[in-house]
Amino acid sequence: MSDIEIRHPKKTNPKSFWITNISGAAICKPKNISENGRSKQEWKKILSRWNNDGEIHCDMDYSHNTNDYLCKTLLPGEDVDRYKIFLLAKEVNSAYYKCAIEDKCNGNIILRGFGEFDDSWENFSKLKKSQEDNWYVDLSRLAADATFWNKFKELLN
Fold first, then answer.
1. Residues 6+ apart with CB under 8 A from 28
2. Rounded CA gap, 42 and 55, in Å?
3. What is the rounded CA–CA span in Å between residue 109 and residue 36?
4. Which residue from 34, 45, 61 is spatially nearest to 6, judged by alpha carbons?
5. Which of 3, 43, 86, 153 could bridge 102 with an S-S bond, Cβ 3.0-4.6 Å?
6. How far is 17 from 56, CA to CA, in rounded Å?
7. Pick from 145, 148, 154: which is nearest to 17 by CA?
8. Secondary structure of 87-109 in HEC code, one letter for each residue
């Protein structure tokens, strides 16, 4: 059984679904999600336990060509030939993207946020530079709208 789940962890942001520990505590080492990833089978189990209550966090745009964005999701030193975008979404009226990246070597799915930000963005200091100039990767635990998790679940099945 997995040690993580998807839920509304904060009453201050009840519309966004976050990945948390089963205990509800914050994930202290999000690299198991944003760097190493989890197997497709494990994500299927996690999503099978997810309780979608229909809350809408924000409108998501799924129309972007994934081939144009792969380098923007990767850190310097990560091999672009090793990965492919499994799911890509952009928050409408925002510079923020959410993605699931498949590691072609081990089949794991990695979840990341990324975008074209400047230092005025509220969490800029926590971001890592991507392979693309002026683009940054968010390696914290991913929060996403229910539509993202639904599409992710559909693609895994």
1. none
2. 24
3. 8
4. 45
5. 86
6. 10
7. 145
8. EEEEECCCCEEEEEEEECCCCCE
Give, for all 157 residues of the chain, the pLDDT tens digit: 467 666 665 555 555 555 655 555 554 544 556 678 889 998 898 888 887 777 777 888 999 988 899 999 999 999 999 999 999 999 898 888 999 999 999 999 999 999 987 766 666 677 899 999 989 998 877 778 888 889 999 999 8
Distance between CA 53 and CA 70 in Å, rounded? Answer: 31
Q: What is the DSSP string of the chain?
A: --SEEEE---TTSTTSEEEEETTSPPPS-THHHHTS-B-HHHHHHHHHS--------S-EE--S-GGGTHHHHSPTTS-GGGEEEEEEEEETTSSEEEEEEEETTT--EEEEEEE---TTSTTGGG-EE-SSTT-EEE-S--EE-HHHHHHHHHHH-
**Euclidean distance between CA atoms 122 and 147, whole angstroms:** 25
Q: Which of 125, 110, 31 is nearest to 73 (CA)?
A: 110
